[in-house]
What we know:
This protein is α+β, with helices and mostly antiparallel strands and 522 residues long. The chain has 4 domains: 8-216; 225-314, no CATH class; 324-410, Sandwich (Immunoglobulin-like); 418-521, no CATH class. Helices cover 31% and strands 27% of the residues. It is built from 9 helices and 23 strands. Strands 17, 19, 20, 21, 22 and 23 form a 6-stranded mixed β-sheet that branches.
Amino acid sequence: MAGGNISPRQKMINMMYLVLTAMLALNVSAEILKAFHKVEVSMNKAGVNVNEKNVMTLKSIESYHSKNAGDVIGTDIYNKSIQCKKIADEGVKYVSDLKNVLIEQADGRKEKDPNGELEKPDNIELHANYLIIQGNGAKLKQKIDETKSKLMALVPAKDKAIVKSDLNTEVEKGSSQSWESEEFEHTPLAAVVALLSKTENDIKNTESQILDLLKAGLTDDVVIVNNFNAKVIPNNGTYITTGSEYSADIFLAASTRQEADIKVGSMNIPVEDGVGKYKITASGEGEKKYEGVITTKRSNGEILTYPFSGSYTSIKPIAVISATKMNVVYIGLENPISVSVPGYAAEEVQVSLSPASAGSLKPDKGVKGNYLLTLNRSASELTIVASVKQKGGSGAGTVKKMGEQKYRVRMIPDPIPALGIIDVSGGVPSALLKAQSVVRAPLKNFAFEGVNYIPYEYTFILVPKKGGNTVYEQGKGQQLSPSMQGAMSRAQKGDKIIISQIKVKGPDGNRQLPSPLVFDVQ
Length: 522
């Protein structure tokens, strides 16, 4: 029989063949032929069991592949397992077809039973002619060698020594005979059929070992990925202003099928398909940094940890809505100005006034990013400029202009004259006039609240309709003098009351109102 590295089981079977062959050389009795048949039946039953095991192993690999279709290594193992089955099935079919040809040439089996004894179990001529003289034995040897070579090609080099295949067609050293002559010449058909059944099982056993190795690769001590994703990780924040340098790391990332524990600080992060889902509500302004660790366990029980860090930039929600015709600032007031640059904290922003002689721009101590602009009368318009120091990149540390806004400089509009609650000239009931005692100068519909003008001088005139003396008096302060109030209390229907040349004092200094108040007493 063939030599080489064979299993103990094969050694036992080979020994049995040697004993039987030696006995045949003396006398091939009916009992010996029956023994060969029993060996054949036993081989066939063993083959069924091995085949069932191989089917279950293949189903297990297929099940894993269907659940983890993105696993690259798993897919490779699945494809190799399909190839393994195909190669083995082709080899088994070739041997089985050859065995059936030999049986049919010798009149088949008794009572046409597929598992029955051969009609001519002692025949030694028919199969010798077919296998040796006609060359089909050499073709069988070639098929066995080819099947073994293709099956072993599916096994990684480091694992080839693990496979103990009985598919061996080497002849004994020093023998002048071919393998087919050693195996089939001067051998009864019953022994040849048993030998071919054994060859079928050898193919199935080799298939079984390779499928087991492939399946083991699904849980081996290897980090196997489910899928790949292109990732972009910014190095200097997610908000970059125009003209600034942006840098990022770009790479191919893979999620693994091993379960991982992910923490940011002491907080556990939920994991979906191997990807940690980190969410946090941004608070405050500026760059926010965080650190964490990914912990995973290899199949050999070893614990692996992978630290990581990240950052993001927190800014206030921004909506820029402006009416360009109303970019106006007023002389004499502390004009509130808000300045921000996305991606930079308020303390990183530098604000300046152009021309600088137009006034002063000071931070509002109450609110970060807010400023108070005070103007003089030297300019009709000005520009507020926002700059920052660059972060990251080759220009780090340099001051860069980020934007500007132009404003028109205007005087505060004139307040309107009023006598008490009456601020419109025209006919006024006598009783309503007599109830007023104060001259006022309110600012109506002005953008700034709390801007007040106080009258400090005016002229009071009462002109009687029916003739008589005109009352003319210079007023000081807001309050009407007693004589003015007395004149108003004596006013008759048709008389006129005039308050003119009203002078007021406000945040931008003193001014005289252009319009008087003229009332017709009713």
